Amino acid sequence: MTGAGSPTTPWQGDVNEAVIDDWKADTTTFERIRQVIDVTTNPQTASEIAERAHVSDPTARKHLSALAETGRVKEIAAGGATRYMRAPQMLAMRRIADIHREHTKDEIRQAIRDLKDERQAIQEQYDATTVDELTLELESGADGWADLTRWQQIEQNLEIAQAALTLYDFDPDDSRSAAARLSDRENTIRSRGALQDDGSQSDCE
C-alpha cells in the first residue's frame, strides 16, 4: 500500500551509477584523477586509473604527468609500461599541513617537548641512545619490542611536528590563525590530543 504522495512506479536505476553521475557533475576530470590517485597506494596503469576516475586514457595520462611534476604522484617504469601511485611523502606532507593549520605554535612546541620527554624515558629504561642500538639489544619475543615501535613513532612524529613548526616562519600571526581555527578543532583536541598519529586511525599503506 502506498501513500498519496508515493510514486506509482518505483525507481529502477542503479544507485552506483547515480552516485557516479553526481561525482562527474560536481568535479572536473583533473579533480577526479587527483582524488583517485590520493587513495592509490599500489602502482596502477593510466588506463586503470582512468577507469576509476571515469575519464579517457589520454586525459588520465596528461593529468598524471602533471601531478608527477608537482611530486604528488610517483611514476614507476616496469615491463615497458608506466604505472602510477600516490607519492609516499604525501601523507607526511598532509600531516604537517594539518598540524600547522589546527594547532598554535605553543601547542606544537609543547607537543615536541612531550615527545622528547617520552623518548628520553625509553632511552633511559633500556640504556640505549638510538633505535638501532635498542634493536640490536632486544631478543626475539622480548617485551621491549612495543617500546621500540613507539620510539620509532616518536622519531617520525618529531620530524613532522618540527616541520609544522617551521611553517610559522611563513605564517607568523599564529594568534589570529588560532582564534579562527579554535571552534573547528576543540572537539578533535579533546578526543585525540595534539599530535595523533594518522597510523592509529587509518592507511601511507
List the helices and strands and how they pair.
Blueprint: H1 15-26, H2 29-38, E1 44-45, H3 46-53, H4 57-69, E2 73-78, E3 81-86, H5 89-102, H6 105-126, H7 131-137, H8 144-166, H9 174-192
Antiparallel strand pairs: 1-3, 2-3
Could you give the count of β-strands? 3
Oligomer: single chain
Shape: elongated
Q: Give the helix proportion (percent range).
A: 55-70%
Structural class call reads mainly alpha
Residue runs with pLDDT of under 50 for 5 or more positions: 174-194, 198-205
How do the strands line up in the largest sheet?
1-3-2
How would you state the average pLDDT, rounded? 79
User: Gap between N and C termini, in Å?
Assistant: 50 Å
Largest sheet: 3 strands, antiparallel
Order of helices and strands: HHEHHEEHHHHH
Number of distinct helices? 9
How much beta, percentage-wise? 5-15%
**What is the gyration radius calculated from CA atoms?**
23 Å
